[in-house]
């Protein structure tokens, strides 16, 4: 009897406020649908991203050093237990201007790598010779750049860019994208407006320095795990902990190496000065 009365009361409530009931019902249905969609989409997006990362052999960890990174430092990194592969890289932030235009932008110049962080070519080809570059697809679209165009580069500060790059004028041979940049943001910089708007890729031989500005590493077993999963994060964390353990020793090695190079240059200049001084006295 109580059950029947309850059913009648529910029925009367619904029929008496049918528009309100339907509104609440469809709001709940839409909410559940959106939630279910987001839950499923997140996993699908992670799987898609994982395929892209694996296909381009994207790094798991990037190591950077203010004094540069030597081959000796790379050797130490290769000996880590949880490292799969290691590759040194070069990069520098510059001001770029399309030849024939007055508009300038801050961009990143990156040296082409052989193993990791492979570029997806959209049009044209990767740089093969000095004075050639591949340009970021997003940057090219925003600034009407195409293969054959020429970019003029400058340091954006008081430094001479030729101390870092062998060329300051680059012809675009290709347009492409990098898995390192998933969004339109290209990072921040200390020159120009403070925001990087794109990147270009050049031959590593374009960089004057023998030392690397960064090192790219992949963690052992990380490729077999799905990107963003807890298992993947644990693999990367193990490698990061090992890098932290040797960072102090490797930093000291690099500092001593830089100091030794500087001292050798000073000694060489002093010997040259003393030699010229003796010649001057004799004359």
* Unreliable sequence segments: none
Order of helices and strands: HHEHEEEEEHEEEEH
Approximate strand percentage: 15-25%
Number of strands: 10
Which structural category do the helix and sheet elements fall into? alpha+beta
Query: Order of strands across the widest beta sheet?
Result: 3-4-9-6-8-7
In angstroms, what is the radius of gyration? 29 Å
* Largest sheet features: 6 strands, mixed, barrel
Helix content: 40-55%
Question: How many separate domains make up the residues?
Answer: 2
Shape: elongated
Number of H- or I-type helical stretches: 5
Whole-number average pLDDT?
A: 90
Give the N-terminus to C-terminus distance in angstroms: 128 Å
Biased composition (Basic residues): 271-283
Region (Disordered): 257-283
Biased composition (Basic and acidic residues): 257-270
Protein name: ABC transporter permease
